[in-house]
């Protein structure tokens, strides 16, 4: 009703202004004599917006995944569930009920820019809660992006630790940029650069297919490149999984140090024992901790400064800034012709000065938000350095709780596992 | 560091993580927020043609709709005929629509009804431009909600130069033009 009133008012305004800005109603509406009746307009209701059913399915899938990984310890079962998730969340739902992307909606909600529906919050929350209890079972068998890469990882090679570690910073960068983009109203980066959604829908731009294709081909040899070196949601899941109550372990019982699982993990998530490493003495540990604690604020401050200094560059992700730059460039004769955006701008009512002022305001808005983004990256860097230097002694082969996606690939490698049946028989 | 200590720290961190996530969501979640859908504000549309090319679907979920109530039923229709058309007939060389999705039907002298064949329409907006330039603006683009897959971020919205896309409540999923109050328009 309100809409109708607004529209009516708008029409009245148009008529009063003589239709300068929006010329319409040039011709009177005919008065028919033949008893003609206006046909109905075809405005079908939304096909599917109620995601509650998907929330139920997601919960079931997560529960099953946790059961398969932790209780059944069955790789074939996990793989089966992976394929089902790929079929449903990927191809049937076309990759757009997605906890990865929900980060952005939730961030908008937390920042008070948008209201978020309960279904979206559930989608964001459920995998995290499950990770807090069972590890990253969402990555293992539910996430369609992970599933697609899981099924193509046929000849995975193990990357050197250093490469793994350095590339592992990229997801933090992506997460930070995503939040920065949401906070400044620059759009949803994760959705714009989703590499696989084009496959799920059997249609996308060439760039999207190229990016997805490169990742999939890489994924044949380097397991789950998106999950490990890009996925921003993986960062959050990793944090949760690190403190998970239960977690997949390579061996069901005691590790016998047989080294058979050493090369089992294509995702570099198995920590090898370091029995030779002498434990730190209290004094050494205290000194190291002191250095780290003293260095951390410096690194964070450096990051924040870098962020602040690069805020004009970062502001270029905002469409208004892009348009202002384009218009300024056209005015200065740096570009030939017009883009659709600049054409639409010139046809509109906004003046150049207003646009420049708006872009200036956006840049100013980026200032301290870029600093926070830089500070966050600094903090991540500091935490990584700390964890590198504080790593203690390890006696057994263990999963790296943060990096492990609970895919169960390592289970069959463990000879203790194979004994399970025999042990069970002995017991009876 | 004893095993007991480690576990206690882990418990603490777990509780802290749960608190953090819970607190953030308590702030984020709005129980009243219903489902929303993408829609085009016809007042902001600049008929750039990107609706036909940017949608993740092919053909696009955007189609032309016709508000019959505000149509002039003109014989010389700016949305139907090429500006350079020699004849006012259904010849393909005279039609503006590249896929011939508009049907022209004689009603009574001198009025013609124009109907969009949605199965053919690609949402290019050529007729919308013609109607806005020479007619009443009764032809305009809308997202057909039965076709739309409701992307989290609409690919067309991202590319729209007029900033015409926005999310609206799913119960009222169209932004339709209506006949102005007082009957038959500009008289």
Q: How would you describe this protein?
A:
The complex is a heterodimer of chains A (428) and B (187). Chain A is mainly α. Helices cover 62% and strands 1% of the residues of chain A. In chain A, helix 9 (170-183) packs antiparallel against helix 19. Chain B has 187 residues and is of the alpha+beta class. Chain B has one domain (35-172). Chain B is 24% helix and 18% strand. Chain B has helices at 3-28, 50-54, 126-134, 155-159, and strands at 36-40, 62-66, 102-108, 111-116, 139-143, 165-169. In chain B, the strands form three sheets. In chain B, strands 1-6 form a two-stranded antiparallel ribbon. The longest helix of chain B is centred in the N-terminal third of the chain and has 26 residues, at 3-28. The model of chain B is unreliable at 183-187 (pLDDT under 50). The interface between A and B is large, with 81 and 79 residues.
User: What proportion of the residues of chain B form beta strands (DSSP E)?
Assistant: 15-25%
> What proportion of the residues of chain A form beta strands (DSSP E)?
under 5%
Per DSSP, the total helix count of chain A is 20
- Please compute the radius of gyration of chain B using only Cα atoms: 25 Å
Terminal CA distance of chain A reads: 73 Å
What is the H/E string of chain A? HHHHHHHHHHHHHHEHHHHHEH
The largest chain-to-chain contact, stated as pair and per-chain residue counts, equals:
A-B, 81 and 79 residues
Overall 3D form of chain B: elongated
Helix proportion range of chain A: 55-70%
Number of helices of chain B: 4
- Give the low-confidence spans of chain B: 183-187
Biggest sheet statistics of chain A: 2 strands, antiparallel
Provide the residue-averaged pLDDT of chain B: 84
Oligomeric grouping of the chains: heterodimer
Radius of gyration of chain A: 27 Å
């Amino acid at each position: 009703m309100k809409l109708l009133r607004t529209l009516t008012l708008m029409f009245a305004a148009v008529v009063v202004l003589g239709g300068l800005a929006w010329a319409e109603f040039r011709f009177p509406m005919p008065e028919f004599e033949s008893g003609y009746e206006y046909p109905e307009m075809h405005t079908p209701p939304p096909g599917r917006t109620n995601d509650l059913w998907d929330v139920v399915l997601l919960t079931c899938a997560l529960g099953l995944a946790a059961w398969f990984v932790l209780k059944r310890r069955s790789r074939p079962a996990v793989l089966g569930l992976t394929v089902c998730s790929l079929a449903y969340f990927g191809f049937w739902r076309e990759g757009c009920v997605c906890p990865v992307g929900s980060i952005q909606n939730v961030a908008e909600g937390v920042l008070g820019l948008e209201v978020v529906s309960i279904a979206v919050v559930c989608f964001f929350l459920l995998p995290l809660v499950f990770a807090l209890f069972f590890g990253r079972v969402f990555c293992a068998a539910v996430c369609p992006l992970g599933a697609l890469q899981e099924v193509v990882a046929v000849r995975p090679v193990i990357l050197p630790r250093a490469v793994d570690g350095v590339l592992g910073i990229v997801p933090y960068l992506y997460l930070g940029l995503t939040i920065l983009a949401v906070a400044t109203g620059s759009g949803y980066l994760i959705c714009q650069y989703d590499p696989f959604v084009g496959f799920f829908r059997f249609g996308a731009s060439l760039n999207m297919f190229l990016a997805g294709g490169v990742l999939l081909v890489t994924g044949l040899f380097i397991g789950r490149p998106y999950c490990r070196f890009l996925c921003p949601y993986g960062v959050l899941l990793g944090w949760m999984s690190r403190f998970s109550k239960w977690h997949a372990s390579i061996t069901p019982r005691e590790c016998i140090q047989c080294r058979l699982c050493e090369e089992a993990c294509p995702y570099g998530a198995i920590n090898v024992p370091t029995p030779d490493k002498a434990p730190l003495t209290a004094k050494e540990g205290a000194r190291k901790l002191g250095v780290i604690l003293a260095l951390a604020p410096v690194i964070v401050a450096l990051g924040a400064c870098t962020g602040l200094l690069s805020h004009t560059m970062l502001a270029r992700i905002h469409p208004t800034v892009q348009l202002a730059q384009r218009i300024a460039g056209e005015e200065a004769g740096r570009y030939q012709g017009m883009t659709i955006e600049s054409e639409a701008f010139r046809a509109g009512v906004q003046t150049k000065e207003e646009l420049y002022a708006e872009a200036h305001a956006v840049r100013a808005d980026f200032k301290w938000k870029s600093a926070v983004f830089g500070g966050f990256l600094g903090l991540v860097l500091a935490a990584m350095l700390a964890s590198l230097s504080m790593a203690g002694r390890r006696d057994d082969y263990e999963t790296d709780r943060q990096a492990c996606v609970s895919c169960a690939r390592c289970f069959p490698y463990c000879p203790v596992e194979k004994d399970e049946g025999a042990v069970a028989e002995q017991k009876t | 560091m004893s095993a007991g200590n480690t576990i206690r720290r882990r418990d603490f961190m777990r509780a802290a993580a749960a608190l953090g996530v819970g607190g953030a969501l308590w702030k984020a979640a709005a129980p009243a927020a219903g489902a929303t859908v993408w829609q085009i504000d016809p007042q902001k549309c600049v008929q750039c043609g990107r609706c036909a090319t940017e949608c993740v679907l092919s053909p696009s979920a955007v189609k032309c709709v016709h508000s019959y109530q505000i149509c002039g039923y003109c014989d010389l229709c700016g949305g139907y005929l090429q500006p350079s058309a020699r004849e006012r007939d259904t010849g393909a060389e005279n039609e503006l629509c590249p896929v011939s999705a508009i049907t022209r039907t004689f009603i009574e002298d001198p009025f013609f009804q124009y109907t969009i064949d949605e199965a053919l329409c690609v949402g290019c907006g050529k007729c919308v431009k013609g109607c806005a330039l020479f007619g009443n603006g009764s032809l305009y683009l809308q997202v057909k909600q039965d076709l739309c897959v409701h992307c989290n971020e609409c690919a067309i919205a991202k590319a729209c130069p007029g900033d015409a896309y926005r999310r609206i409540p799913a119960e009222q999923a169209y932004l339709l033009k209506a006949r102005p109050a007082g009957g038959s328009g500009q008289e």
